Task: structure prediction
Amino acid sequence: MRIKGSCLCAEVRFEIDGDFESFYLCHCQYCRKDTGSAHASNLFSTTATLHWLAGQDRVKVYQLPSTRHMKSFCLNCGSALPNLQGQGELLVVPAGSLDDPVPIAPTAHIFMANRCGWDQILDDIPKWDGFPA
Result:
């Protein structure tokens, strides 16, 4: 499988060759902090390869000291981008960075003990297709 992605400003573009083994929605304190949301949505692969098509020099990698938590992002727009972890053996791709449809359904929610309270009532609130009228 070949799938493309990019950042919000489109300065960074990439392509993934291969399949994803899992798709986790992570509610840990680090993922909530670095996404500014209820959870991170990341695809994982031990066999796929990452190819930078443009802007690799615009990618910043941040490793949270004393943890395994890592985040890559565009220096221009701040969008989350793929990175290699575990000495290059694990490709982690933010699902929202893909331009093509996400090829697999979420595997599981993880770190539910850290789930924020307001995330538990989302199905009960009004839904709009755009900004509310």
Notes: The CA atoms of residues 5 and 99 lie 5 Å apart.
